[in-house]
Amino acid sequence: MDVKPRLPRGRQFFANPGPTNIPDSILHAVAHVTVDFNDPAFLAVYDRCVAGLKRVLRTEQSVFMYTGSGHAAWEASMVNLFSPGDTLLVIESGYFSENWARMAQDLGLVVRSVAADWRRGAEIGAVEAALAADAAHEIKAVCAVHNETATGMVLPLPAIRAAMDAAGHPALLLADTISSLGSLDFRMDEWGVDVAVGGSQKGLMLPTGMSFTGVSARAMAAHATSRLPKSYFNWTNMLARRHRSFVGTVPTSLFYGLEESLRLIEEEGLEQVFARHARLAEAVRRCVRHWSGNDGPQLFCLSPDRYSDSVTAILLPEGHDAERVRRIALEAFNVSLGGGLGRLGGKVFRIGHLGDLNEPMILGTLASVEMALRLAGVPHNPGGVAAAMDWLAEAAGQG
Ligand SMILES: *Cc1c(COP(=O)(O)O)cnc(C)c1O
């Protein structure tokens, strides 16, 4: 059955795993008149933002910020830490680990990878083995995507750090927290992460265009000897500025937004933010498990201890097109879902459940997806939304 496109009315349900919904108070905050970025009033906002970001990253070490999306922070990390021909160990997780590896190669670095089945995730034993085999310590860094947004899987960073320590290997640990920061537990200093890469448009609920890195003292020492070419992103050049970031103009409006984002997150409390994400994510998974009856769609992630609480990838039964489900959800119900990335294109769609989100929003999305499955003729066990409702009501009753 084909659907009749309608004029979009009401609010679009935006269920992508990034960018994410921007709360009204942040939209109002970013609509700020132009200010001089050296104005004392702005500098106070700026300094509060950097301090707040450190609290969210759970670090007391350095933070550098960039005008650019998450990829800019990836590139900044690599050019600031490494020299031509350095070797990185990239833990395969999915589309984003592949892109990280490709960028490293483009920059003249050598990539070794810990291969993984995208549905089950890498074995930490394989990371330890790769490090133990590197007696000459050629590997300068281990790169891990904390939350693989393409597959809906979390990598256990503390276990990766433990494997590095067990192997007695001095490599740095680089973590991409772009789709986990502000929605899943992350502790840069406690977990021994040397560089944490984050972006504005996911858990922080901001417009796209700002990214940042938390940088450990060990990583700063590596920076001192790195020889990859760099200028705009050079941390040393940044440190010479009052803002200790931004060689050029500071994106002031994003900082007014970030100040409000941090206020919202800390008003709710980081632990409560994580609990809300866990609650909503479990509702999505219960719904999908229900749909999976009658040879219906399934959770893509097959490792329950690694389920992501910020995004769920849903694998369609063989012979059914995930893009068609997405198109119907958008055209008939004004619900925007995430598509399958890279080799998962057409096979999975993704429900983003991170950022500014509550129970009715997730239930509306799930109900719309169920209608889209029906309209697309995808087999499923109807009534998944009731399973989500049961769970959410139970979770609310537990307070
Ligand atoms: C979104 C995302 C990126 C890419 O960030 P951009 O802001 O789009 O450049 C990188 N890694 C992960 C895990 C992401 O979710």
From TrEMBL:
GO MF, one example: L-serine-pyruvate transaminase activity
Enzyme class name: transferase
UniProt GO BP: glycine biosynthetic process, by transamination of glyoxylate
Location of N6-(pyridoxal phosphate)lysine modifications: K202
EC number: 2.6.1.44, 2.6.1.45, 2.6.1.51
Keywords tagged on the record: Aminotransferase, Pyridoxal phosphate, Pyruvate, Transferase
SUPFAM superfamilies: PLP-dependent transferases
Keyword Transferase recorded: yes
Transmembrane stretches, start-end: none
Residue ranges constituting the Aminotransferase class V domain according to the UniProt record: 54-289
Cofactors that this protein relies on: pyridoxal 5'-phosphate
Listed InterPro entries: Aminotrans_V_dom, PyrdxlP-dep_Trfase, PyrdxlP-dep_Trfase_major, PyrdxlP-dep_Trfase_small, SP_NH2Trfase/AEP_transaminase
Residues the entry annotates as binding substrate: R350
Family membership noted in the UniProt record: Belongs to the class-V pyridoxal-phosphate-dependent aminotransferase family.
Name assigned to this protein: Alanine-glyoxylate transaminase/serine-glyoxylate transaminase/serine-pyruvate transaminase
Species assigned in the record: Neoroseomonas alkaliterrae
